[in-house]
Design a protein that fits this description.
With 672 residues, the protein is an alpha+beta fold. 28% of the residues lie in helices and 19% in strands. The N terminus is likely disordered.
Length: 672
């Protein structure tokens, strides 16, 4: 018996020795607080050792590395032609950065760079993670979670931080989020692990969602289980009892009295699509409309619309209404001010006309055109602005709708027409007739007006505003750079809250320069004049006004503030009505000063063909000064046609005469 016991013991020891090599040997990650996340990235070939054989878990993660981690973890495969000037094809993470950018998860800077080697802050990671959440169709709500240092989080990023915290993806310490602190590779790995657990990635499942690495109840238990992401929220009664169970991912419902009724289930989108027989029917997925016969589309958050019309990405703000063209199971085809492109279902809501609770509209108010905006988060009309004279066809007391801010209809077709607002479509090379003294007088009167509202932001505006005394600076810029002084003032008023914004007061930054949706830089200018010159010399002149722009850029969509159809607004701001709002500032200044510019207006035309040359003389024998790549570009016509040619103001900074063939320019009637 003793012999048998010894043999058994020896066999056990041998068995243990034979098994031992199969166990993972200890390394620098063993016992690390982010070990599971780090090993997850390794399994995705996202994290590799450096030349010294280290995974560097405690080093700061860079923008390029984090983009690469996301691309590999999410198995991104579709890449567009997005290019960043500081990410050559030879860069180690170039492919992954392009994949993440194509998916709309990352964006670059206004100068066309991405800064891949810069350390990434925790709040910027939160923004990228929120976009990944949307891309992966992970359910989310509007969270009210806040941290003790919430005020330190850039205001545009607070929602992303709150949503990430609500889903248990990101965590703070002792109630603080530490938004500007750089994140480590280890922290980044845990963030991504938790993201992919919510996306049901099998590689992220198992014991990784429990224990110390994800923080007990923070990433499991009550936070992401129970009723929040399971139970009644995404299962049970929500998906429709017996008629839409199991494999019935889609359902056909009917619009009745502004509500959806019925619940005929289908396992595939294609099967549901074939079963639709009436215009009043829609296809839904988890009670979200994914296909309808007619209606409009509203963005749920900031998106980048890849326009097939101009082959460029266009930033679009949340709460933007767009034309619905079509949809499938994956994406929605939309048109925004003539720009056609596709968006993911997670980024938008489809609203049939018969279910609309309210829409943004235009109206004639005392002879002026007023735009009233609708907030789809609160289902209330939220704000309005006046931006010029109302066109003659617009009847008082009626609501008008427009997809592009040019063609308006009252909905039933009984009153409609086309109207170009003079200030919105006035090319930047125009010269205002107001003097520096008149501009200064207007500025002080306007500051007194906003100060009298009692709004705390405008307290002591007549003493503290950064606009005070800018008249001569603006006229000097106009003379040197051939850019309308009143246009620059209007832009400054809008972007800086009349010179009282934090950026204006603390950084002499009137225009939000270098303040982007994903990575704002707090650059301080020595003076407001320096800030204006930087706007003109580094933004407007080379990239927005001069046709073709500087190398690697595609911002020159017409030298007007414009709209999402043409002008600065195509690329300068995500707000689709930014151009109209700038025009409103110009109009109000004109109204206060006697309409000098409108009473002696420029003649404006739109080009009607692509590849149109602007020449130094009135014949094809003269050299081209530049070429308009797009059609529909606004030009200022300075003389009537001679021998079939218009003399025009050059969009390129040029003191000589410029000419364009009359056959390819259509003069437009502007409302002023």
């Amino acid at each position: 018996m003793k012999k048998l016991s010894i043999i058994a013991l020896l066999m056990t020891v041998i068995g243990m020795l034979l098994w031992q090599p199969q166990l993972a040997s200890a390394d620098e990650l063993t016992g690390h607080s982010h070990e599971q996340g780090l090993r997850y990235l390794i399994s995705k070939d996202a994290l590799v050792k450096d030349a010294k054989g280290s995974y560097r878990p405690n080093d700061n993660v860079t923008r390029g590395e984090f983009a690469s981690y996301l691309a590999k973890a999410m198995n991104l495969e579709s890449a567009s032609d997005i290019v960043f000037k500081d990410v050559p094809d030879t860069y180690v993470h170039a492919k992954d950065i392009k994949l993440a950018a194509s998916a709309g998860i990352i964006t670059g800077y206004g100068d066309g760079s991405f800064k891949p080697n810069a350390a990434i802050s925790r709040q910027h990671m939160a923004v990228m993670l929120e976009r990944a959440i949307d891309y992966l169709n992970i359910p989310k709500g509007t969270s009210s979670i806040t941290f003790k240092d919430n005020a330190a989080i850039f205001k545009d990023y607070r929602q992303a931080v709150a949503i990430g915290a609500q889903l248990g993806i990101i965590q703070g310490s002792n109630g603080n989020f530490m938004p500007v602190k750089n994140a480590t590779i280890g922290q980044a790995s845990s963030f991504i692990l938790r993201l992919m657990q919510l996306a049901d990635d099998p590689d992220a499942s198992g014991n990784s969602n429990s224990g110390n690495s994800n923080g007990g109840n923070t990433s499991g238990g009550n936070s992401n289980g129970g009723d929040t992401n399971g139970g009644n929220s995404n299962g049970g009664d929500t998906n429709g009892g017996d008629t839409n169970t199991g494999s019935s991912k889609y359902a056909i419902k009917e619009i009745s009295n502004g509500a959806l009724v019925g619940n005929q289930g289908f396992s595939t989108f294609e099967a549901a699509e074939k079963a639709v027989t009436k215009n009043t029917q829609v296809i839904v997925e988890s009670d979200k409309i994914v296909k309808m016969s007619s209606g409009y589309v509203v963005t749920n958050n900031y998106v980048a619309l890849k326009s097939e019309t101009i082959n460029d990405a266009i930033a679009v703000a949340a709460n933007t209404e767009m034309e619905y063209l079509s949809s499938d199971a994956i994406q929605v085809k939309v048109r925004l001010a003539g720009q056609v492109g596709y968006l993911k279902h997670a980024d938008v809501s489809l609203i049939p006309f018969s279910m609309s609770k309210g829409r943004s509209y235009y109206s004639n108010e005392n002879g002026e055109i007023k735009h009233t905006l609708y907030d789809y988060n609160t289902n209330k009309y939220s704000s309005s602005y006046v931006f010029g004279k109302a066109p003659s066809f617009m009847k008082p007391g009626e609501k008008y709708y427009s997809w592009n801010g040019v063609y308006f209809t009252n909905g039933n077709g009984s009153s409609n027409g086309e109207a170009y607002n003079y200030y919105q479509f006035l090319p930047a090379r125009a010269q205002t007739q107001y003097t520096a003294q008149e501009l200064d007088a207007y500025i002080m009167n306007k500051l007194a007006e906003v100060e009298s509202t009692g709004v705390s932001l405008y307290k002591d505006a007549t003493k503290k505003s950064k606009l005070i005394g800018l008249g001569q600076t603006l006229k000097d810029v106009e003379a040197k750079s051939q850019i309308n002084a009143m246009l620059v003032l209007s832009l400054a008023q809008h972007e800086s809250a009349y010179g009282m914004s934090d950026h204006a007061q603390n950084l002499n930054n009137l225009f939000g320069l270098y303040v982007y949706d994903t990575n704002p830089l707090n650059k301080k200018f020595d003076s407001v004049a320096d800030n204006i010159n930087e706007l003109v010399d580094k933004f407007l002149q080379p990239n927005y006004i001069t046709p073709g722009g500087s190398p690697g850029k595609n911002f020159s969509n017409g030298a007007v503030v414009g709209s999402k159809a043409l002008g600065f607004n195509v690329k300068y701001a995500s707000d689709p009505f930014w151009g109209a709002k700038i025009a409103g500032h110009y109009y109000r200044a004109e109204k206060a000063l006697g309409f000098k510019d409108a009473n002696n207006p420029y003649t404006i035309g739109l080009t009607t063909t692509t590849g149109l040359n602007v020449r130094t003389g009135a014949a094809t024998s003269f050299n081209p000064l530049f070429t308009y790549a797009r059609s529909g570009m606004p030009v200022i016509i300075t003389s009537s046609a001679t021998n079939g040619w218009y003399e025009v103001l050059s969009d390129k900074l040029y003191t000589g005469k410029a000419f364009v063939s009359k056959d390819y320019v259509q003069v437009i009637n502007t409302v002023k």
